[in-house]
Amino acid sequence: MKKFLALTLALVMALSLVACGSKEEETPAEEGTEGATDMSVAMITDYGDITDQSFNQTTYEACKAYCEANGITFNYFKPAGDSTAERVAMVESAVDEGYNVVVMPGYAFADTIKETAGTYPDVTFVALDVGELDLNPLDADGNPPAEPYELPSNVYCAVYQEELCGYMAGYAAVKMGYTHLGFLGGMAVPAVVRYGYGFVQGADAAAADEPGANVTVEYVYGNAFSGDADITAYMDNWYQTLGVEVVFACGGGIYTSAAEAAAKVGGKVIGVDVDQAAIIDSAYGDGMTVTSAMKGLAPTVQHMLSEIAAGNFANYGGKIETLGLVSGDDPTANYVQLPMESTQWDDTFTQDDYKALVKSMFDGTITVSNDTTAMPETAITVNEYGNIK
Rounded mean pLDDT of the chain? Predict the structure, then answer.
């Protein structure tokens, strides 16, 4: 299975990166891909759209590519607002129109799953980035629900080890010579926190390898998954006043605020989820994107759709699967990675250095904590600012 996943990931990641810059617009639930099988696929967007250059777009393009290649009916549905009720309404619309496979990207679908999966037992649900804590959040005292929700057999959830690619990005940035870093998270949900805490751990490890290195990380959440004037102003202060050199913009479209501020002073950014170099560099300045901390959304979608088509979903239903490293020899085969082509490799951190890092992480020589309860203890300076708004 690992070999199959590795081969699938290597192929699909390359295809998804090419598609990343697409600005294609379609009308939701109007112009589906006509299929020739009983399987029909609907993708529900969370609260963004299919041109967000992140979760929604990558998931949409992966679904569409697979369905077009295999003669399967496909369409996407966009909720009218950012609420569970609106997302549930779109699932109901998709089912009413005959779609029997529903793909949902993002933690916001946890409550949607609870409200719809039991109602539609004959519909197969694939959820990306919906984990146990999303389905069963802790109360104010840190206790789990008295009666936790159990994932039914018609639902599969995939979560990712974001702390690993976050670590890779932080390690690479410091090795490349950046000493004043910033982390701009979207909202402090588990996936974003894992990215951020991994980033801090990687920067700390790289600094330990450089005697005398004086590394600082400024750390904040925008409390949003899109950029705006307030967040841009905050980033202006980081780049222009504090002297931050590179910001890991981790939260969908929030990269726009970091990139706008960076463009004014020749600063740098690090992308997230997919290889964002093409979109960021073309819009804000060539060479702005140092690297991107990526996870395999497209490979997950295409692999799961192929397994559903093959009648193998029973092997996955009712499970929350954590996806991370599957190869120590081929970084491109992993579900968490840095882009080989667009990362700004140099003499201080080469592709061979990166491959050696991944191998050490895969074999356990390097370990990265996935604990999201507290900022990791480090020798470098980490300044936490909470939420911008």
Answer: 90
How is domain 2-160+297-323 classified at the CATH fold level? Rossmann fold (3.40.50)
Helix (H) or strand (E) holding 279: helix 277-284
What amino acid occupies position 38?
D
Residue burial 324-362, b: 16+ Cβ < 10 Å; e: rest: bbbbbebbbbbbbbbbbebbebeeebeeebbeebbbebb
Structural tokens at position 224: 């949003």
DSSP 348: T
DSSP state of 219: E
Query: Is 163-294+335-387 CATH 3.40.50.2300?
Result: yes
Chain centroid, CA 260 distance in Å: 21
Q: Mind listing the pLDDT tens digit for each residue in 248-289? A: 999 888 999 999 999 999 999 999 998 999 999 999 999 999
Q: Where are the domains of the chain?
A: 2-160+297-323, 163-294+335-387
Q: What is the pLDDT of residues 32-68, one digit of tens each?
A: 555 446 999 999 998 778 887 778 899 999 999 999 9
Rounded mean pLDDT, 328-342: 95
Distance CA 316, CA 318 (A): 6
**CA–CA–CA angle 73, 76, 80 (5° rounding):** 150
More confident residue, 32 or 17: 32
> What pLDDT sits at residue 22?
34
115 by Cβ neighbours in 10 Å (0-12 / 13-18 / 19+) ranks as middle
Residue 187 region by backbone torsions, left for phi larger than 0, else alpha for psi between -120 and 50, else beta? beta
**What is the three-state SS of 48-74?**
CCCCCCCHHHHHHHHHHHHHHHHCCEE
Domains 2-160+297-323 and 163-294+335-387 share a fold: yes
Q: What is the pLDDT of residues 83-113, one digit of tens each?
A: 999 999 999 999 999 999 999 999 999 999 9
The lowest-confidence range among 50-54, 150-154, 185-189 is 50-54
Q: Which helix (H) or strand (E) covers residue 3, if one does?
A: helix 2-19
Strand ranges across the sheet with 40-44 = 73-77, 40-44, 101-105, 124-128, 155-160, 319-323
